[in-house]
Pyridoxine 5'-phosphate synthase
Amino acid sequence: MKPHALRLGVNIDHVATIRNARGESYPEPLRAADLALAAGADGITAHLREDRRHISDADIDALSDLCRKRGKPLNLEMAVTDEMLGIALAHKPHAACLVPERREEVTTEGGLDVVRGHNAIAPAVRALKAAGSRVSLFIEADPAQIAKAAEVEAQVIELHTGAYCEAVRSGHAAEAERLLGRLAAGARQAVQLGLEVHAGHGIDFATVRAVAAIPELAELNIGHFLIGEAIFTGLAPAIQRMRALMDAARAEAAA
């Protein structure tokens, strides 16, 4: 398969994490989103958690307005709950990514279990699609989960890259290679089922090239690393370097 252009979605959740640590009004996630779009991001991702530990309802209001004005997509990450479904249906974001969520976790751990949870997931997918949102499911690169994602008629899956990225950082080369192969196989399966394929979680400068080289991927969503790197280099240079690495990987894959 010939690689196509690869989009970059920037998750600005952890700008809000820093803001909320002191209970201040700064740094502003809205400003980070505006800077990210100016630096070349193709869209903005934000996760409105049930406990509002970082992004708030007011942030979603502001981000929705910004993305509409800039003509860029907002990807709202959300748990499969009545409250979050109501918020998403009210805002009608370009994309809604259904993710697993547990109060005790530090960040999203693992993918959504579509096989076990399809009775709740399927009606949420239908409602969001009817409202005009493009529905994505954040899942592991597991054949059964991918098949069930197609069965509930999601348009997109986002493959969880966290285990692969952690294996690279830990120096476990053989395990990293195995997990990368699993991601590539999952992406191929998804495309064959008519799904658009995204990927995200844990991606940094050291891991992005191998992931970006998977030709079936249409979008990467990257957040925590970019916000951390911005402390040292600034947000725009961090995004621009990530974009350059993604583009280089795609060019090499196409050569």
